[in-house]
Here is the input.
Amino acid sequence: MAVPVVAAVVLLLVSWQVVVDGPLLGLDRAVRGAVRSARPNAVLDPLGHALSDLGSGVPAVPVLLACGVLASWWWRRAGAARWWWPLPAAAATAVLIPLLVVPAKAAFARPGPLGEPLTPGQWGWYPSGHTATATLSYGVAALLLARAAGPRTARGLAAGAVALALGVGAGLMWSDFHWLLDVVASWCLAVLVLWALDRWLPRPSGRGRQASGSSLR
Here is the structure.
């Protein structure tokens, strides 16, 4: 229970600081200043943009849906009675992402790092949609596959999902697309969803049970 509790506390704290323009936002400015002092960089600039693009709807959502199909096949081979569950779980995640992020962006209406005021009807930058899309899409994809995988494969899937989530967040900050706290909030939000899904999904077999215990908790 420590993981979701910490994620919820951090999410509430960061959201409160964004609303009241609190001192924690100084961390945003410090990180942005450090990044800007290190730019431009002929290698890291293109890498930052490439990592940021991994959090777009394409490729993240197609990867999620494809992994849902593959996971269903794995579950069926593992003998799961409800082998089709990964399909609606993947589809529901794809629908859930904008439902979580878009209303929050509109409610907080936070300007981005460039400081330009929001135009009427424009969404804010908080929380980061690309970070939420990447963390949830790749995280749920890994979780669905890990349910019917061996322990080593499950650990590899979890490590890959974490690396992608961290990489997208780092790319967004390096490219000056988002503040640090925008990214942190989306990570926390995704952790809460993944934690809940990890406990809701059935386990197709003894092997899946062992894998899920070592996957995304």
Notes: The CA atoms of residues 48 and 170 lie 7 Å apart. The chain has nine helices and no strands.
